[in-house]
Design brief:
Length: about 450
Amino acid sequence: MFIGYFTERPYQDREAPWYRTHHGMMDLSLSNGDYNPQLGGQLYNRYFDEKLQVEDVGFDGLMLNAHHSTPFCMGGGAMNLEAAVLARITEKLKIALLGNVLPIWDDPLTLAEELTTIDLISGGRLISGFVRGTGRESVAHNAQPPYNWERFQEAHDVIMAAWTRPGPFRWEGEHYQYRYINPWMRPIQQPHPQIWVPGILSRATVAWAAAHRYPYVMLDSQLSMTAQTFDYYREQARENGYEAGTQHFAYMFKVHVDETEEAAYETGRKLITGPGNLFLDGSNGKANPWVQNLPGFNARGKGKFLPTADFYSVKQSRGLIGGEKSDAPVYEGPAQTEEEHDDRRRKIFDGVLERHAAIVGTPDSVLPKIRHVLEQLRPGSVFIWHGDGDFTHEDTTRGIRLMGEYVLPAMREMGKELGLESPYEVDPLTNEPVVPMAVAS
């Protein structure tokens, strides 16, 4: 089993009025005039230091993502640069980029060159994830939403051709045209770096991933809905002539381990505080419906979405809410006092824990819950979402240390016992045991 580590790398300005607001923070409503460059630089370096500890304690990889124009994720625009730095300063960690938002790239050939460079610097440790993004990325980068799905697929095809076809050659597509494709670098991993596809809502994306035999990464959803999504992938795999195995499935979920149950609860609930993150279950981030539900972006009609579309917080984060009842406490107006606000946040976090949307506790108490997740979903790869929200550096490093000492070894034993094989043990493209990495000559 592959065990990775993830955080959004939030921009934490605890002195700023917006950071401690009792209002839910509307997405894309904060001006970058509130950005402190000195603090931003310190945070980037803090997160690099934490990734070095992630490697030291024995994680297999790390995951980076990119949401643009927001304080809840510092990876917007910088993700590939972060990956290049990590490729140089780490030695063993796989670097999963989940992922580059393909439809906003007007020049996917440049992206292919950037990703190849990361694979070269790292010695072949890149996992290249591709995503369609959400409406917020299309707005921020002036990408036409009706062509999102088409551009995603064609940009992928351009990148794959650049990686696998000897040049020079032309490309005459619907959305991309090149007179000369002949990038003067090739990935170390052959025929190309591993490609994993993350998602949470679109059935079309799951079907596309299954058709290409790419592992599908379910992002922080409820267990029953994730299991149904994995079943849909299996159905699509059979239609494409193969049986999907554990190597085709990955799951990301929130975990914090601490020295006592009380410390785990108090620190763990920081995951849903800090800069409002509309994609984090329980956070006080609010979606901008007109941004997230752009005309032509989301599929229309019954059967176009995964079962997660029935989960209120997922629909809300994509601007698809139409009067449905929330599965979490809903409050009219902001809290009037700090005590009332704290009480509300505790009740919301209790609901997150009841839904298994986060697991917090001591090593002894979290392991049975993690085993439950692995037994229910049978993923060959998992990502631990940690160190987010309002976590301090000390909170994060303490949790990483305890996971390394107690949780990771037990999870590996669980993976062996349950037969959870990752894409580094069974090749998802062939369903055959992985042979030593092919290296470009």
